Amino acid sequence: MRALCWHGKGDVRVDTVPDPKIQHPRDAVIKITACAICGSDLHLLDGYQPTMESGDILGHENMGEVVEVGSEVTNLKVGDRVVVPFTISCGQCWFCQKGLFSLCDRTNPNAEMAIKAMGHSPAGLFGFSHMLGGYSGGQAEYLRVPMADVGPIKVPDSVTDEQALFLSDIFPTGYMAAENAQIQDGDTVAVWGCGPVGQFAIRSALMMGAGRVIAIDEVPERLAMAEAGGAETIDFSKTDVYDELMARTNKRGPDSCIDAVGCEAAGHGAADAVFDKVKAAAFLATDRVHVLRQAIMSCRKGGTISIPGVYVGMGDKLPIGAAMNKGLTFKMGQTHVQAYTKPLLEKIEAGKIDPSFVVTHPASLEDAPEMYKKFRDKKDGVIKVVLRPGQL
Ligand SMILES: NC(=O)c1ccc[n+]([C@@H]2O[C@H](COP(=O)([O-])OP(=O)(O)OC[C@H]3O[C@@H](n4cnc5c(N)ncnc54)[C@H](O)[C@@H]3O)[C@@H](O)[C@H]2O)c1
Ligand SMILES: [Zn+2]
Ligand SMILES: [Zn+2]
Question: Is 245 helix (H, G, I), strand (E, B) or coil?
Fold first, then answer.
């Protein structure tokens, strides 16, 4: 089959590789009808995530048609149309039983590597390094889906691929980010990053009763999409974000701050951001925590910081004293996708949200390397790329 493979920093290619097979009775194989490129894939492209190997197949936002099922998968049959969470979860361990699906204790065969880096191992993820399971991703014609009796959900005919696909990741991720922000009716919520995750966080915060959402980015079309979703905006390349947030909240600061940027924050010459870049380049720190610093400094006393943005290792000079003395609450994590797929599919079916608003670039699988670069460089108005293997 054809698949998008990682070969090193900045180097992804479409290769011909062996078709996936059932390896375990709880597996299914799906023929991919739609898959997407995520901001998390950019951390792989840019070489931030350790333990990648040349030839690894990327892609964790996947849907398709079931073509084969293992003997223990009784909830799916050949021909079903399904969307697949990016988190691989057993459904049975202590964490899965509590709904903490991204923390599943049983799906990372390389748990020892993760334990060394993090103290414990989270769940295995599709297409996301060997430390997180070494599972092949779905930017390909076919995908092996482990734990297929737990993860995939069937998509009704009334919902299109582009409406359903983002149940695999970014819609639940934006939604959980807003839940983690502990929004009370009428609150002011600041969202850093108007990429796809930020867009869903903005709309979810408003659905949960936020009175105002202030969205921060520098890319004009992303700021425009945030405004279309009901947010006020700040262009961080033109304005001091802290000063502007204080001016707009009567010096109080936003009640909740959502960091939907993560480890590759841009800094525009801010002293702390220049320092981050030098340290990351010299391997003295792995993550650029500029946005997180700004969120901590800006958040109102007693407020909440929600972090859906991915961090991979060590951040430097985090103002923990400010966070402690201001009494902030932190909530974060990879999304517990399986906890959200059904309720959010119901919202789509009820017409409360149409997630396809975020798609700007439908493309073929063969175009994926070019699309990765356009998405990384924010060229050509790209906000979200959807690849249609075998269809475009
Ligand atoms: N927690 C999860 O389970 C989960 C799931 C999906 C994605 N993510 C993460 O969420 C983050 C966003 O993903 P995405 O797909 O929207 O990515 P993206 O790269 O498209 O968007 C990031 C946005 O942040 C903006 N940005 C950069 N520096 C900024 C700054 N200093 N202030 C404000 N905005 C800034 C960029 O201009 C860009 O629009 C990534 O870190 C990704 O890895 C996490
Ligand atoms: Zn993702
Ligand atoms: Zn589990």
Answer: helix
Phi, psi for residue 40 in degrees, rounded to 5: -65, -35
- Report the 10 Å Cβ neighbour count for 362: 17
- In terms of pTM, does the model score above 0.90? yes
Q: How far is the CA of 178 from the centre of ligand 1 (A)?
A: 15
Task: Determine the Cα–Cα distance for residues 212 and 231; give it in Å rounded to an integer.
Answer: 7
Which of 35, 37, 40 to mutate to test ligand 1, by most ligand atoms within 8 A of the CB atom? 40
Which protein residue's CA is at the shortest distance from atom 13 of ligand 1? 39
Residue 271: the pLDDT is 79
* 367 to 13, 211, 374: CA distances (angstroms): 9, 41, 11
Between the two ends of the chain, the Cα-to-Cα distance in Å is 16
Amino acid letter, residue 28: A
CB of 322 closer than 8 Å to CB of 332? no
Task: Check pLDDT > 80 for residue 289.
Answer: yes
Q: 184 C-alpha vs ligand 3 centroid, how far in Å?
A: 31
Task: Please check the confidence at residue 269 and state whether its pLDDT lies above 80.
Answer: no
Q: Mean pLDDT, the chain, as a whole number?
A: 96
Closest protein CA for atom 20 of ligand 1: 195
Cβ partners under 8 Å of residue 240, min gap 6:
none
Please list, in sequence order, all residues whose beta carbon lies within 8 angstroms of the beta carbon of residue 207, skipping any fewer than 6 positions away.
178, 352, 353
pLDDT digits (tens, 9 = 90+) for 157-216: 999 999 999 999 999 999 999 999 999 999 999 999 999 999 999 999 999 999 999 999
Helices (H), the chain: 39-45, 94-97, 111-118, 161-164, 170-180, 196-207, 220-228, 241-248, 271-281, 290-298, 320-325, 341-349, 368-377
